[in-house]
Amino acid sequence: MKSAKSKARLNEMRTPSRSKQNLFQGEKDPVEVYCRLRPMPRDTDIPCIKILSPTTLLLTPPSTAISYRNEGAKTMKYTFKEVFPPDANQQDIFDKVALPLVEGLVKGKNGLLFTYGVTGSGKTFTMTGEPQNCGILPRCLNVLFKTINELQAHKYVFKPDKMNMFDIQNEAEAMLERQQELHKFKSNRKNNSNPNLAMSDTEMNKIDGLNEDNQYAVFVTYIEIYNNSVFDLLDDGPSITKNLQSKVIREDAASNMYVHGVTEVEIKSAEEAFDAFYLGLKRKRMAHTTLNAESSRSHSVFTIRLVQAPVDSMGEAVIQNKEYLSISQLSLVDLAGSERTNRTKNTGQRLREAGNINKSLMTLRSCMEILRENQINGAKNKVPYRDSKITHLFKNYFEGHGHVRMIVCANLRAEDYDETIQVMRFAEMAAEVEVLKPQINNAASTLGLMTGRRKANRLFTTARDNINRPEAKDLEMDLGLVYSLGPDFPSLELNSSQASHIIKELIAHLEMRISRRETLKRSKALKDEKLRSMLLDMEKESMDIKSENVSLRGQLAAAQRRNKALEDRITASENAALSYQRKLSEMSEYSSALKRDLQEKELLLSQNKLDKEKQKKILERKYHHKIAAEHEKAKEINSEKQQLQNEVEEKENRLRIIAQALNGGRSDNITDLRKGTGDMAAQTSVRDFTPGSTPRALPAHLLTPFTTAPQTRESRDTPATSRRGVAIANPRYKRSLSADGKGWVEHAPSKIVPMGTVMKPNIANSKCVNKLTNVKDITSSKKSKYCLVTQDQDTDGELSTTLYKGNIVPTCGGGAQVIFNDVEMLKQFSPTKEPDTSRRTSGTTCARHSGKRRDTGGSPPHTPSNTNAKTQDGGSSQDMRLSSNIPYLYSFA
Ligand SMILES: Nc1ncnc2c1ncn2[C@@H]1O[C@H](COP(=O)(O)OP(=O)(O)OP(=O)(O)O)[C@@H](O)[C@H]1O
């Protein structure tokens, strides 16, 4: 119930249309209006159009639309010749809308196709298309050239006369112009091609029903109507954006409208046509609006004119008569988008553009309306074609003869509803306008020329060429009249009584003809048989060839596949090689940078080397000087040493004399010595020599540090103020050597080097101590000898053990003192070392130095460990760390 109601309401709302009777009266055709819906730009968009059937649309106003406010939610239904859904492809649209127009074009009919719709609804997409998805225009050119391909006249045979008509030139004139053009082309070659617009040859089929007895030529013009001025897009002059002259629209002798002085280019192939189109496209004014980033702001008109003229009876050259020319044209129009200026928010130039666009579309609309009214009511209202350039130019289509088709492009989305509804109304109204059916001008038929003459001529030429070929020499050919039955009939006039002989003659003639006919029949039958068998052979051969062809095709396809694979591999390897080359060049750059670095560093290095050599030479020179100086000094020292040695020897001799004197009690000797030695005698203390001990000569350097002042017997009893802390030995308390037990106190280092490596004396009846902490060790009556053991490494790296031996003498304070009187050195030389001849004695040398010293308070002797010697009566301890190996006196006061 509800659906019936709404259906009734829909019917009510449909705009008034004329009855079918009116539409198809007489020799007129209505304007055919198609609708193409473009896919919605965003998934979130809400549609306002629904496809009810392949020809009908339903529009529902959204609540935001102006018409919703005025009329409420009234749905509108619109009918078209066909509705193309959003997923319709370009080929479908071309086949259904444009192909019939191209067919009409080759048959001499005019056609007009325009796209109409709001901005961004897909007009340009439909007309031009996109790379790899061509629109109507490239497809029209493609199919046209595929159709007329071999039937084209040579270039410049037809030449525009600048007044919308054409002249016909003979072959010589045309050739001259071609040569001139070739010359110009070479010097001024430009490439405007856009390969993306070109289509593959296999995509299009050719049109059937072409008059093959005509020669054809294609001319194109491409104009733009911008701000109601006409501009030539194929003009090779100054750039379209600079100071371009607008063109005027004129009427030619046949009352056809045309753009005066427009560049009309003769095109010989689809590629040339694309070049021309692309050149024009580049020049088209494009501007951005807020609605569409690439919106065209002008109407563009691409016109294809096809000129055709019949060939002569020989089927070769065009008949040189303009009257037989047939000119048909197909105009493909991409109208600028209609838009609501308050919605686009355009200002200034853009606002003016929009105003002009809308005005021209409005004029188109009112022209259509008035035309329709005139056609319906028979009124003769003036149609305002001249109000706008676009309507002015297409006046002929509406008043003259031609097919007019329109594609209405529409957006499904609700936000475009208000504009879309206007477009739909215009489309509905345009569909009711009628145009006269185009007439076919077949001037050639009035010439009385046979049809198919061109083909016949071609076949004849081919056959003649074949006969002249050398391989056709042996071919059996019957080029004369094959089936003649003999001479002409004798006279059959029976005008006398002897006519019977005429009858006999006739009978004989007829019999002869009959027999000849029989012969011919037999020969024909034979020939037929021969031909049949020949045909059979040929058929067989053809079958063989076909099967061979199939297998060859298979092989070819396989080879092509292989080739393709190889090509792919080659491309891949080329790419890889390229990348390797890049890497190689990078590496070589890097290596050359490294080499440069290396060279710089080598340079620096050699510089440094030179500097060092220089310094070395300087140092060597200095060193030589120093060595020489050292030699000099050594010589001096040696001589000094020699002198000193002499002195020491002399002193030793004196000391020996003193010792002898002491032992022998010869005081006179002492006196002599004192007299003789002066200071030297005073430096040596006689009291330090223990009776019974073996006097030994101490080296001078061991003696000197302890003898700072001459000592006398008196001064021995009273210690010098500087030696106040040191106990004085009291010879009265001295134990006799024979009485004591000759026990040894052996003061050895705590860390003794293992016996295997260092010499160590074996002292019998000894007590070994590492530290002298207990005074009883030396004051006990059993120990009268003291031996201090040190182990050390000499300057040659040899280890030696030194024994400092002495007697323990009790002091008057109850303590004890040690008087060193012997030094024993045990050394072991390594056989691998360079022997020191001065010291070596069959592998082991014992150096023994003896001497007696009286402690004079000098530096304490060296001990292998830190030794604190405490005095017996609790006196202060003494640090005995030493810096030399010289034996001293231990004193325990
Ligand atoms: N049927 C379609 N399928 C896919 N994309 C489309 C279709 N129609 C239009 N488009 C896309 O929509 C955009 C606008 O289309 P187009 O430029 O053809 O609009 P227009 O009506 O010519 O605009 P204007 O009037 O401003 O020139 C383009 O990017 C185009 O690719």
TrEMBL record:
GO terms for biological process: microtubule-based movement; mitotic spindle midzone assembly. Residues 14-23, 864-882 have a biased composition (Polar residues). SMART domains: KISc (SM00129). ATP binds at residues 117-124. The keyword Manganese does not apply. CDD domains: KISc_KIF23_like. It comes from the Eukaryota. Residues 30-433 form the Kinesin motor domain. One of its GO terms (cellular component) is nucleus. Keywords: ATP-binding, Coiled coil, Cytoplasm, Cytoskeleton, Microtubule, Motor protein, Nucleotide-binding. The keyword Nucleotide-binding applies. It is found in: Cytoplasm, Cytoskeleton. PROSITE patterns: KINESIN_MOTOR_1, KINESIN_MOTOR_2. GO terms for molecular function: ATP binding; ATP hydrolysis activity; microtubule binding; microtubule motor activity. Residues 1-23, 830-882 are annotated as: Disordered. Belongs to the TRAFAC class myosin-kinesin ATPase superfamily. Kinesin family. PANTHER family: KINESIN-LIKE PROTEIN KIF23 (PTHR24115:SF600), KINESIN-RELATED (PTHR24115). This is Kinesin-like protein. It comes from Bicyclus anynana (Squinting bush brown butterfly). The gene is LOC112045108.
